[in-house]
Amino acid sequence: MEDNLLSEQEGSGTRRGRGAGGGAAARRAARSGGGPGVQQTYINRKIKVYDVLDEEGLALIEKNAEIVLEEVGIEFRDDAEALALWKQAGADVKGERVHFPKGLCRSLLKTAPSIYTQHARNAARSVQIGGNATVFAPVYGPPFVRDLDGNRRYATIEDFNNFVKLAYMAPSIHHSGGTVCEPVDVPVNKRHLDMIYAHMRYSDKPFMGSVTAPERAEDTIAMCKILFGEKFVDENTVLTSLINANSPMVFDETMLGALKVYARNNQACIVTPFILAGAMSPVTVAGTLTQVLAEVLAGASFTQLIRPGAPVIFGTFASSISMQSGAPTFGTPEPSLVSYGAAQLARRLGLPFRTGGSLCASKVPDAQAAYESANTLNSTVLAGTNFVLHAAGWLEGGLASCYEKFMMDIDQLGMQQKFCEGVDLSENGQAMDAIRQVGPGSHYLGCDHTQANFQSAFYRSSIADNNSYEQWLAEGQKSAPQRANELARRWLESYEAPHLDEGIDEALKDFIAKRKESMPDAFT
Amino acid sequence: MEDNLLSEQEGSGTRRGRGAGGGAAARRAARSGGGPGVQQTYINRKIKVYDVLDEEGLALIEKNAEIVLEEVGIEFRDDAEALALWKQAGADVKGERVHFPKGLCRSLLKTAPSIYTQHARNAARSVQIGGNATVFAPVYGPPFVRDLDGNRRYATIEDFNNFVKLAYMAPSIHHSGGTVCEPVDVPVNKRHLDMIYAHMRYSDKPFMGSVTAPERAEDTIAMCKILFGEKFVDENTVLTSLINANSPMVFDETMLGALKVYARNNQACIVTPFILAGAMSPVTVAGTLTQVLAEVLAGASFTQLIRPGAPVIFGTFASSISMQSGAPTFGTPEPSLVSYGAAQLARRLGLPFRTGGSLCASKVPDAQAAYESANTLNSTVLAGTNFVLHAAGWLEGGLASCYEKFMMDIDQLGMQQKFCEGVDLSENGQAMDAIRQVGPGSHYLGCDHTQANFQSAFYRSSIADNNSYEQWLAEGQKSAPQRANELARRWLESYEAPHLDEGIDEALKDFIAKRKESMPDAFT
């Protein structure tokens, strides 16, 4: 009975998914086994969120954050416009230090949406940000890669394109992300053009804009207008971009410049205190949460001064430092508590929330990397996080994008997506007929209910080896990263770009060429 | 400022812990760095549990379980006494199949305690089972070990003793467990004597009894009476032992025999349906939960027929099978949902709960092992599990006990213990003085609050390498298992046995010698 069942299903590489579309290439790959499988839309969580603070604790932290905003204040550096806007809004501005009357920021944030749609050029890939939605996006920012030959080296634009391609193919990645690695072979002043182009050309998922200078943000908007059409960009959100606070309690000119460009264009910003607790915030969870809330209240409400109604995400990047070496640590209990607590504060503010991902400090995709990433990801998902940056590929405290880890992480993301469906309590889910049919001392392998639910029953890992020790030996004693390496190579070989209108492609290339021409060559 | 702070603390190997005692050896090792650190008592969870079912879902599964108990029934095989007891209690017995009138099992379980204390010979190591307590115990059952030389081979009594020693030294392991591996170099009929002796001699933490035959359970009780005194054992619970159901819906002679011995002696049993969903239970979560509840209701209430008031734990071992190969899989979404749901059902029954651990299917302590283990452990802890078997050392679907994975897992257990303390909302936790002192644009590394909270601030991993890439290179590019290997060797070298009264030790040895003499030599 088992033999029949198993042999019947051997070679079926289809993974269940409730995705819209997926593309002929993906379906072909899925049928042939080892392919990426059917694309999944963003997660619509059917499960509860997990809370670590009660009403009293939340109210206490909110009260303390208002004290920080009023008494200590937040600095908006080298930005006269920002200071003028804050003065006009009723804040007490002393030099570059802004002191906020109690409740001002919270009140300004009433115009920010709780939920917005970020559109993709393929409408089936548009994502909801906020509410019960969770969106996974790849690693952001690493200057290095750990490549498929086991080298750790500076990242190139080829690596960048590769990660965009892998994220495009990954069924459990809903968003193409932003700086999936830093293409350091392209001059820093021109780099953003090639990065934005890669997201537009090699993927059809939504993506993030450049934030390293206001004019690069403007370039991003201009390219979006070519891709989506000017009217569409005016009326819709097509970008979600990352604005970090310089914790503690500072926003600098660069980040404010990009924030203003995006908010003015009704595009979304993630305002994120980048916290290594113990260095950029107090060593305690409650102290860190207080500062995070104060910084987000100031930065996020500033978007509403620029343009009321512009979408803005409550961001938190939580890590602790090692008290021995000062190095950042990941996957430990304290950042998890911060993430859970910050998610609660964001919900009370009515803002979408970003934290976590698959973070780790390990230099290689080993057990340390996996323990730390899984700890971070589990708390990220149960916190009810809406936008998850660094969901795949992060290694070495964010200094390296790792191909093998990317492939392992997306498998974990698929598991989380299945988990978020919760418990099916339908008649089929209850399975009473199966229990009656099988009875004591028999087994369920061949029963009608098992046969009927075969495809959708359990998550099927693309990385895990569940075979016997003997079979694993016979197959070459491969570790998980080795299997991930093979999978990444297969995917990159079979990659097919999504269709892009030739006229649009030409227009994008023209824009990039002209912009590059206007820039000095070796400017960094 | 940072330099002062860091150099001042360099070389401090003490890990925070609120443990009672810890032993001079542990303290010495902790001071010298790299030692196990201060022993921690069982976890007293300050955090909430996570639920996946609402009232309606729970009531549905409870109703369905009662239907299974009444209509399908549970088999009690080769045990005339059990069948007679059930008949007497009002069940409808047909052959070996017992059909339970609605509510009978639940009503019998009213005499079972929600919380009990399992005593250790060192009173500071006694554990609370139930309520907000969580107790971590090592892996149980593997016939193989993956040793410190990288060999996978049959386990020996030396391995057994080693794992008992490591569990004794591990600050985050609260319980010595049972069959930490199968010492296959000792004849199967004599093995239990050496195993129980190892727990008594090489550790002072609580432990589990033999369940492979009623007379071995009797031997365990007899040895406990030597160790604790006859009166103490009569009046207290000193054993928590593992009774698996033969799912679906069968209890066999062996397990029933051991259960009866322990329950009669007022010792605790964990009644656990051992479920590979899709084979031993339906392929759905709700169907599996229904069967698990029915089996536990039957098995656990049977302990109350033997002796009302005997402690009994609601056990669940949740795994799914691969629908491709039939192999068990771990760390996937479905077993997590089963664990969360079963924990809720146990709480409603008022029984302590056991599930999960650090489970994985990987053959080596690689990223697969870590992802799967972390996924399992996170759901185990958030479910509010009271007794966590397999919390450290489990590899290869439970076929191998792995030294390296043991060391990595106990580090993860320490993190969970810290997480369970929740968010400190005291004035010190709020850290408002720190935020005021530091202000915008500075850092917290040297501020008074950081100095004052230095030791207790963050969990300090014994395995993770958080250093720079360059430093990691210079130190030999070690992976997490390599660091774990070195740590295990150091611990085993520095192990010192806890004091045991010589007279008791002699009495135990005499008992074992006499029992072994009475047994055939090569009996298996």
Automatic annotation (TrEMBL), chains A, B:
InterPro entries: MttB-like_sf (IPR038601), MTTB_MeTrfase (IPR010426). One of its GO terms (biological process) is methylation. Keywords: Methyltransferase, Transferase. One of its GO terms (molecular function) is methyltransferase activity. It comes from the Bacteria. Pfam families: MTTB. Signal peptide: none annotated. Residues 1-10 have a biased composition (Polar residues). Its EC number is 2.1.1.-. Residues 1-37 are annotated as: Disordered. Belongs to the trimethylamine methyltransferase family. This is Methyltransferase.
